[in-house]
Amino acid sequence: MQLSFISRSSLVSVISDIAFPHLGNVQVNDITGPMIRNVLAEIWLAKPETARRVRQRIGTVLDWAYASGYRDSEAPMRAISKGLPRQPKKEGHFAAMAYAKVPDFIPRLRERESYSRLALEFAILTAARSGEVRHAVFEEFDLREKLWTIPKERMKANREHVVPLCDRAILIIERCMELRVRNCELVFPGMRGRKA
Fold first, then answer.
1. Most buried in the list 37, 41, 58, 69, measured by CB within 10 Å?
2. How many structural domains is the chain composed of?
3. Which of 32, 54, 82 is the C-terminal boundary of a domain?
4. Residue 23 and residue 109: Cα distance in Å, rounded?
5. Cα separation of 157 and 56, whole Å?
6. 81-85 long-range CB contacts below 8 Å, 24 or more apart?
7. Mind listing the pLDDT tens digit of every residue in the chain (196 residues)?
8. End position of a domain, from candidates 82, 111, 141
9. Reading across the β-sheet that carries 161-164, which strands appear in turn?
């Protein structure tokens, strides 16, 4: 069995463009650690995140091949990482606004109204992650009880999370109801009702 049997369907285009030219015509049982290392070496320092994803996807394909009987051994992914240079450290998270500056920022945020500005203020008020805010739907809110129940499927910890809402957060949700795009359940829709 050749890697090409799996690679076109399981690797995203950017990753298949990197791995497929080198490994696409090689039987999965014949793919060695040095072969994989050579694929990764080309992008390891220039595109570290892409290289890590390529490594992970190649490992997934080779582990599947091993589990399915197409390969005699598991993918040598740990050893491959040892044969590559140390990647540069990530820049880290975006800098947060100093807590003391938030009270001065909020009035500037309210100078113009848009879904983005309402969503940002709502995120500040609830301390929710941006994805939780962007994917919020109206049915998650109980305005009478002043609660926002985020289903476990949308939570990083995979557990339902209930957020108490302050009066200003309630006003933001009510304003979004007034602005509601027809047939869109998202509280903060992006352009043409898509997720922001």
1. 58
2. 2
3. 82
4. 51
5. 23
6. 81/55, 83/33, 83/34, 83/37, 84/37, 84/40, 84/41, 84/44, 85/44, 85/45
7. 444 444 334 345 556 778 888 888 889 899 999 999 999 998 898 888 888 888 888 888 899 999 999 999 888 888 887 888 888 777 666 678 898 999 999 999 999 999 999 999 999 999 998 889 999 999 999 999 999 999 999 888 889 999 999 999 999 999 999 998 788 899 999 744 444 4
8. 82
9. 141-142, 147-150, 161-164
Same domain, 120 and 68: no
Length of the chain: 196
Flag whether 87 is in a domain: no
Q: Helix (H, G, I), strand (E, B), or coil: what is residue 147?
A: strand
What tokens does 7 get?
């690679």
For residue 77, report the phi and psi dihedrals to the nearest 5 degrees: -70, -35
Q: How many CA atoms lie within 13 A of 93 on its CB side?
A: 3
| DSSP string for residues in 64-90 | HHHHTTS-SS---HHHHHHTSPPPPPP
